[in-house]
Every structure is written in C-alpha cells, then in structure tokens.
C-alpha cells in the first residue's frame, strides 16, 4: 500500500479517537432518563453512533491487512510485531469459520 493511504488511516483514527473522547465527556439527557433516548435532543447519540462506525471501519481495515499479511507469510517464520498480530496468533484457524466472524 502507498504511504499516503496508511497515513490517511492513521490521521482518520487520530481524529475519530479525539471525537470519541470529546463525546464521551458530554452528559447526554438520555443517560439520566433512558426513555427519552429516541429524542436525541442535541444529536450527541447520533454523533456517537457515527463515530463508532468510523472506528469500526478503520479497525476492520487494519484487521483485514493483518489477516492478509499473515496469509502471505504462511509457512515462513512470522514474527508477532504488534497487538493485533499477537491477538490473531492466539485465535485458532477455524475461529472465523465457526459461529464467529471478524465483524463481531
């Protein structure tokens, strides 16, 4: 992949984590009265859901990259070099084909 694309995901991730941190600190009326969540007076709940979708998209892309890299390096001495690689090395090979998939 091109350096710009990786940089793009990194900058998107940095921005979305900043947004998530900001939104996590805002008191939402529905936190106190859950029955009014559907109203979403100030739009914070919608913003939180959109932020979560963006985080999920970015992490899903990174997970796909790691899985692809592991497939390409199969049979060679693959070193676990970051957190995702360590987590993937602890998953059985049939994990994604059983009742689970990477999206859950």
TrEMBL record:
GO terms for molecular function: heme binding; iron ion binding; monooxygenase activity; oxidoreductase activity, acting on paired donors, with incorporation or reduction of molecular oxygen. InterPro entries: Cyt_P450_sf, Plant_Cytochrome_P450_Monoox. One of its GO terms (biological process) is terpene biosynthetic process. Keywords: Heme, Iron, Metal-binding, Monooxygenase, Oxidoreductase. The keyword Iron applies. This is Cytochrome P450. It comes from Opuntia streptacantha (Prickly pear cactus). The lineage of its organism: Eukaryota, Viridiplantae, Streptophyta, Embryophyta, Tracheophyta.
């Amino acid at each position: 992949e091109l350096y710009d694309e990786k940089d793009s995901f990194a900058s998107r991730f940095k921005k979305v984590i900043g947004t998530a941190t900001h939104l996590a600190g805002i008191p939402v009326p529905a936190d106190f009265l859950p029955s009014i969540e559907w109203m979403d007076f100030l739009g914070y709940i919608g913003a939180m859901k959109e932020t979560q979708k963006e985080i999920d998209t970015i992490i899903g892309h990174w997970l796909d990259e790691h899985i692809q890299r592991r497939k390409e390096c199969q049979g060679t001495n693959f070193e676990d070099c970051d957190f995702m690689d360590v987590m993937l090395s602890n998953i059985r090979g049939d994990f994604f084909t059983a009742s689970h998939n990477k999206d859950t």
